[in-house]
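Q: What residues go here?
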C-alpha cells in the first residue's frame, strides 16, 4: 500500500476490518414524546448535525473531501454497491474494504480515531479506490482533493494529531505547518489576557502575524455584538494578531436557523433563554452569549428532551483550549434517573469520605441535575458514556452543572464480543455485572468526581477564596499551602496539556474510592448497604475494579512508541490507575501469563483485598491528584503524573504488542434521523450495517 512505512508499523494504522457497527436504539423513547417535544427534538437534532462539516474541518484538511466522496459515491450508486463494484471492476472483498473504511470514517467524523487521535487508512489499494472514483466526473473531482492524503505517506508523525511544529496534524491551526507551540501559547495567552475565550477559535499564521478565526454566521459582527471591541493588536515582537469572524459561516447560519425554530417549541423560560443565547453566540461568535446559554441550561432541571450544543470538549486541540463542535439530543429514562437522583441527594454525606478536609472542598455542594438519557442524536467525532458539563469553572462553582449518563450507549453491544485479559474464573461475574458496574462508575465519576473539589484562588488582587492569614494545611506536607491560582489564571490555563487527562484521572479515582461504599451500591439496587464483598454488591464492586484494571491494559493501544505520547486523555488516566493497583502489592493485583509472547495475559485481582489494599492505594494517589490541582501546584502534579503514566520497556515491548493483537474495533453507532412529514415529525431508523450508516449521512441534505 505504501513503501514508506514498514509493514508492521502500517498494520496498526489500517482501518478496522470490519468495524463493529451497532444501532442506537431510540424508537420507544421518541414515540413517548408529545408533538411539540418531537418538533423541539427535530430542530435541535438538525442544529447538531448541521455542524458535521465543522467537526471534519477540525480533524484534518482531507476529512471534508473524503466525506463528500463517500456521500457522492453513495448517491451515484443509489446505495446499490453490488452494481457499483461491477461498474468499477472491484472484487467483493475490495468493495468491503472501501465500505469498512467509510463506516469507520463516518463513525469518527474524520480519518483520525476520535478515541486515540491516530490516523486510520483504507485497506483498499489506491488503484481500486481510483477505479471507484472514476465512475463519475463529480466523484473523480472530489477524489483529486484527497488522493495524496488518505493513505499513510512517508511521515509517521503525520499519522497523529498534535502540534504542527512537532510534525503532527492539527487543523485548529489551519495552513500553518510551521506554527510552533510557543507561538500558539503566546497568542493564546495574549488573548486570555484580553478576556477572549478560546473555545470557538482557530489560529492561522500569516506573513505578518496571526489570524484568530472565530466561528460565526456573521463575517463582520458589530462592536456591540462582539466580546471584544478591538479586533487587531500588535505584539511586542511586532507581529500582528487579528480577529477574523465568519469561520464556518454557512454551517453557523444553518445551526442558528434551527435553534430559532426549536425555540418555538421550548417547554419553559430556561429553554427559551437558552435558545436565544445560543442563537446570538452562533450568529456573532460571542462566547459570553454561549456562557449565558449554559447558565440557562444548568437551570433547566429534568426536561423531557435534554440537549446541549456548541464548541465543548478541548481534548483534540493539542494546546488543550479550543473546543470541538458537538451536540446531543436525548430523552430521559425515568427509571434509571431515579437511582442517580438518590445519589445526588446523598452526595454531601459521601464527599467528606474523600481523602482531604473541608478547606479543599466547595463550601456547599451544588446539587446537579443527574439524568440517565437515551440518545436520539449525538453529533461529533465520538460518543461518550457520560457527560459532565459545562466546563466553565465559574458557572460550575456558582450555578452548578449537569451530569448525564447515556443509557443506550452504555448498553449497546456487538454480538459475540470477546473480553481479553479477564481470568476464566472471573468471566461469568464480569459479563453479568459489567454494565451495572460501569453505570455506578460513570455516575460517581461524573457527579462526585468532576463535581467535587475547590480551586484555591486569589480571585482578584488581594481577594482570596480562603483565609490568607491562616492558609489550609496540606495533608501532603503537614504545612500551610504556599501556592494557589493567581487572578486571571484558570485550571485549564495553569495545567495546560496535562489538564484534560489529569482531571479524568482524578474523577476516575473518586469513582474507584466511593464505589467501595456499600450504601452507595445500595442506591443502585445492589445489596442492603452493609459491607459484603461476597454478595451481589461485592460482585459489582469487584467488577468495577476489574474493569478499570482491564481498561488500564487496553489503554496501551493509545500510547504511541514513536512519539512516546498518549493519544487519549481517559486511557492515560486508566493506565495510571492500573499502575496504582499493581503498586498496592501482589497480594491485591498482579498481571499473570505463562507464554513468552504474553498472549495469555490476564489480571489477577483479589476481591477480598479491595477494601484493605486497593482503596488505600487509590486514596493515596487521589489525595495527591486533588491537592496539587486545588493549590495550582503544576510542577509537582506534572512530575507525578508524567512518572506514573510513563510506559516502561516491559509495557512497551511485551504488554502493548499483546494488547494490539487482541484489540477490538471501537463501536460505530448508526443514528436515526427525524423528518417532517404530513405536519408531524417522524423517526427514520437505519440497519446496523456499513450501508446503513452511509445512508443515514446521505439523507442529511442540509449538511
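A:
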Amino acid at each position: 500500500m505504501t513503501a514508506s512505512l514498514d509493514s508492521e508499523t502500517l498494520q496498526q494504522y489500517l482501518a478496522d476490518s470490519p468495524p463493529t457497527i451497532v444501532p442506537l436504539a431510540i424508537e420507544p423513547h421518541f414515540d413517548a414524546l408529545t408533538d411539540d417535544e418531537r418538533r423541539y427534538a427535530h430542530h435541535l437534532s438538525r442544529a447538531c448535525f448541521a455542524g458535521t462539516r465543522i467537526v471534519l474541518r477540525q480533524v484534518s484538511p482531507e476529512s471534508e473531501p473524503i466525506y463528500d466522496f463517500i456521500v457522492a459515491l453513495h448517491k451515484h450508486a443509489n446505495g446499490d454497491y453490488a452494481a457499483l463494484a461491477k461498474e468499477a471492476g472491484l472484487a467483493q472483498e475490495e468493495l468491503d474494504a472501501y465500505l469498512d473504511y467509510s463506516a469507520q470514517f463516518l463513525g469518527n467524523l474524520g480519518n483520525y480515531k476520535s478515541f486515540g487521535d491516530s490516523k486510520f487508512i483504507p485497506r483498499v489499494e489506491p488503484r481500486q479506490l481510483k477505479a471507484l472514483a472514476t465512475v463519475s466526473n463529480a466523484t473523480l473531482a472530489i477524489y483529486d482533493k484527497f488522493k495524496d492524503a488518505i493513505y499513510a505517506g512517508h511521515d509517521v508523525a503525520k499519522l497523529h494529531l498534535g502540534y504542527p511544529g512537532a510534525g503532527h496534524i492539527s487543523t485548529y491551526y489551519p495552513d500553518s505547518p510551521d506554527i510552533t507551540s510557543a507561538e500558539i501559547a503566546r497568542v493564546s495567552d495574549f488573548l486570555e489576557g484580553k478576556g477572549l475565550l478560546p473555545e470557538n477559535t482557530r489560529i492561522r499564521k500569516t506573513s505578518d502575524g496571526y489570524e484568530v478565526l472565530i466561528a460565526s454566521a456573521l463575517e463582520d459582527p458589530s462592536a456591540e455584538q462582539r466580546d471584544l471591541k478591538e479586533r487587531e493588536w500588535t505584539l511586542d515582537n511586532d507581529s500582528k494578531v487579528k480577529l477574523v469572524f465568519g469561520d464556518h459561516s454557512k454551517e453557523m447560519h444553518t445551526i442558528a436557523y434551527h435553534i430559532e425554530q426549536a425555540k418555538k417549541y421550548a417547554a419553559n423560560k430556561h429553554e427559551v433563554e437558552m435558545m436565544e443565547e445560543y442563537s446570538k453566540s452562533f450568529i456573532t461568535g460571542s462566547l459570553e452569549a454561549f456562557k449565558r446559554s449554559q447558565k440557562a441550561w444548568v437551570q433547566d432541571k429534568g426536561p423531557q428532551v435534554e440537549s446541549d450544543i456548541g464548541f465543548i470538549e478541548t481534548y483534540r486541540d493539542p494546546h488543550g483550549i479550543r473546543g470541538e463542535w458537538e451536540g446531543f439530543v436525548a430523552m430521559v429514562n425515568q427509571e434509571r434517573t431515579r437511582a442517580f437522583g438518590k445519589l445526588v441527594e446523598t452526595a454531601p454525606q459521601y464527599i467528606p469520605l474523600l481523602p482531604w478536609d473541608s478547606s479543599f472542598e466547595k463550601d456547599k455542594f451544588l446539587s446537579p441535575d443527574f439524568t440517565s438519557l437515551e440518545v436520539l442524536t449525538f453529533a461529533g467525532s465520538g460518543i461518550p458514556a457520560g457527560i459532565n458539563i459545562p466546563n466553565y469553572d465559574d458557572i460550575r462553582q456558582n450555578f452548578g452543572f449537569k451530569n448525564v449518563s447515556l443509557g443506550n450507549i452504555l448498553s449497546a453491544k456487538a454480538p459475540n464480543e470477546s473480553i481479553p485479559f479477564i481470568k476464566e474464573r472471573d468471566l461469568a461475574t464480569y459479563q453479568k455485572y459489567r454494565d451495572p458496574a460501569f453505570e455506578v462508575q460513570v455516575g460517581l465519576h461524573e457527579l462526585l468526581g468532576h463535581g467535587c473539589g475547590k480551586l484555591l484562588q486569589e480571585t482578584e488582587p488581594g481577594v482570596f477564596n480562603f483565609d490568607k492569614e491562616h492558609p489550609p494545611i496540606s495533608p501532603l506536607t503537614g504545612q500551610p499551602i504556599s501556592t494557589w491560582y493567581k487572578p486571571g489564571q484558570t485550571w485549564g490555563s495553569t495545567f495546560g496539556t496535562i489538564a484534560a487527562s489529569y482531571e479524568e484521572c482524578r474523577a476516575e479515582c473518586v469513582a474507584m474510592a466511593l464505589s467501595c461504599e456499600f450504601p452507595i451500591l445500595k442506591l443502585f439496587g445492589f445489596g442492603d448497604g452493609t459491607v459484603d464483598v461476597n454478595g451481589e454488591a461485592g460482585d459489582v464492586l469487584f467488577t468495577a475494579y476489574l474493569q478499570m484494571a482491564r481498561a488500564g491494559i487496553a489503554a496501551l493501544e493509545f500510547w504511541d512508541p514513536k512519539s512516546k505520547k498518549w493519544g487519549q486523555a481517559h486511557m492515560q488516566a486508566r493506565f495510571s490507575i492500573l499502575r496504582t493497583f499493581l503498586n498496592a502489592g501482589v497480594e491485591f493485583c498482579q498481571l499473570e501469563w505463562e507464554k513468552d509472547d504474553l498472549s495469555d495475559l490476564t489480571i489477577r485481582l483479589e476481591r477480598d483485598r479491595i477494601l484493605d489494599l486497593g482503596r488505600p492505594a487509590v486514596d493515596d494517589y487521589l489525595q495527591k491528584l486533588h491537592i496539587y490541582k486545588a493549590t495550582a501546584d503544576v510542577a509537582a502534579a506534572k512530575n507525578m503524573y508524567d512518572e506514573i503514566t510513563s510506559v516502561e520497556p516491559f509495557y512497551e515491548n511485551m504488554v502493548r504488542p499483546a494488547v494490539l493483537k487482541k484489540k477490538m474495533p471501537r463501536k460505530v453507532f448508526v443514528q436515526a434521523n427525524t423528518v417532517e412529514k404530513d405536519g408531524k415529525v417522524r423517526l427514520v431508523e437505519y440497519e446496523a450495517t456499513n450501508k446503513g450508516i452511509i445512508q443515514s449521512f446521505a439523507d442529511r441534505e442540509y449538511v
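A: Context that may help when evaluating the design: The longest helix spans residues 424-449. Residues 94 and 124 are 6 Å apart (CA to CA).
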